[in-house]
Amino acid sequence: MKAGFLLAGAAVLAGRGFAAAKQPNILFILTDDMDSHMEALAHMPLLQKHLVNEGTVFSRHYCTVALCCPSRVNLLTGRAAHNTNVTDVWAPYGGYPKVVREGINDDYLPIWMQQAGYNTYYAGKIWNQHSVENYNEPFVGGFNESDFLLDPFTYEYWNATMTRNGAPPVSYEGQYSPDLTAIKAYDFLREAMMHEQPWFVVHAPIAPHGNVHFAADEDDEAKQSAPKYAARHAHLFKDYKIPRDENFNPAVQDGVSWIAKLPLLNDTVIEYNDEFQRSRLRALQSVDESTAALLQLIDDAGELDNTYIFYTTDNGYHISQHRMHPGKECGFETDVHIPMIVRGPGVARGHVSQAVTSHTDIASTIMELAGRPLENTDGSPMPLSIEAEVAASKTEHVNIEYWGLAIPEGELGRYGDANMTDDYGAAAHAAENNTYKGLRVIGDGYNLYYAVWCTNETELYDLVQDPFEVRNLLGTNHTDLAASLRIADRPIQPIVNRLNALVVVLKTCARDTCREPWKALHPQGDVASLHQALNAKFDDFYATQPRVYFTKCEIGYLADSEGPNYVNQFGGGIHEGHISVSATNKGGKQEGYNRKALDYLGPQHRISIWT
């Protein structure tokens, strides 16, 4: 997408009052684990008033990996997780040391914003495994001013420890973390508006992530519970229940791998889960209040007409859907379809955008607003105006990927035998074999999720007929329904052949190939959508494409265990994918990985498995 296209051209925007004396300011609010499907946004009245009613809701926005650290890296680099090679929250596949080793600390959004002339500020959580031990090894790059939450206290709502501008950690025991980080963001915003330079301010509260108290002893497990909330919100939502949609603790379980084997949740668990979500909604009220306060400060300073406000989260969340305990890490809509709201000059008020967007697009979007379009990212600028949305080439796809375990959260969560461990010493409360490659395709008349798991099981959901993803069309329970699927009047097998080829392209894509994957298959450029690819003249071509497969269920990105990395091109030739050098397996299992007692903070802060 060309520079300037994101808002449909300067001439249109000048007529809407977009022209400004300086580059626009950016306020970015990033929550942790916020859902779209359990009515979180509907229970934030100030957000509704100041952002939903005054901006655009991107109703088809996705994270590409449903786990906080890799998702945040994806968001702040504009590169897919298979290109950043940060795919977990802990070493060796993720966490702050991995961010540093991959060179991201010196080459990501805040650095680029500074190069574009912005003053940059950050308050709250940024990376997992950014701790009281390694906060200055090195300092987080790219911010004029910062105050970061630090492990092992990041997820303790009443016991935060933070580092301001790289200074030694300070304990804020007894202060409520979402309020604390909001105050710091408010102060940074006041500081930013005292200078002539445009500003980029991030507030990243931990809400509504669960409360986690790390084990002080290596023989103990971390204590997980529902998020904590301020006393002023304790009276709220007492009658709330998680929507009893079709995927809520379903009587007939579908899906693949460990999900297919989950038992029904009993009444005790369901009651606990309802209260867990009530606590999440209460924790979000601090974010609701602080968002309104930040906007009021901008308005009082006369800067609101030249400021863009982005509101989103790192990943979604499930509770009781598909019989699952609280958590994330899956490819279902609950986990990857997330809130995204933008308010600012030229952005339609009260609009719901149907554009298909993802976190991979955010860095490109912000840098184009800053006047420094990015060339080497995997995303495209989001169409922020109605004119841009109408004029945009219709992106249909979102690459979904995940490596590792599925970890139940909360006090009742359990997926395995407590005495069982995997090859890496992982505690067995988690579900193994949760590595998969997925694809969301949304176009004219179709809305699909397709995935291939590391067990080489496959799943396909038609969200037009099955919006809650409870009927796997590639399983054995719905053969009649699968036979009725029609897109462009084509049956299911030609459709699956196209989807499989698209996953082969996307699972190792980089830059242009991520944005326009069909060109890897049709270099002539005559195919740009699933509908066009379903032309019967391509049937033999797609039927003979290499298939996605796994040779092993790895817990990190080791490309040697994932095949293939090329597709045949229509008319002859081969298109080879991009594989990061650090994603290749040089001699088998990586050393130093023990989730049972990961010594990343020093022996006094060893932890048990959780995310």
UniProtKB/TrEMBL annotation:
The keyword Hydrolase applies. It comes from the Eukaryota. SUPFAM superfamilies: Alkaline phosphatase-like (SSF53649). The keyword Signal applies. It is an enzyme of class 3 (hydrolase). It catalyses: an aryl sulfate + H2O = a phenol + sulfate + H(+). Residues 24-371 form the Sulfatase N-terminal domain. Residues 1-21 form the signal peptide. Its EC number is 3.1.6.1. Belongs to the sulfatase family. This is Arylsulfatase.
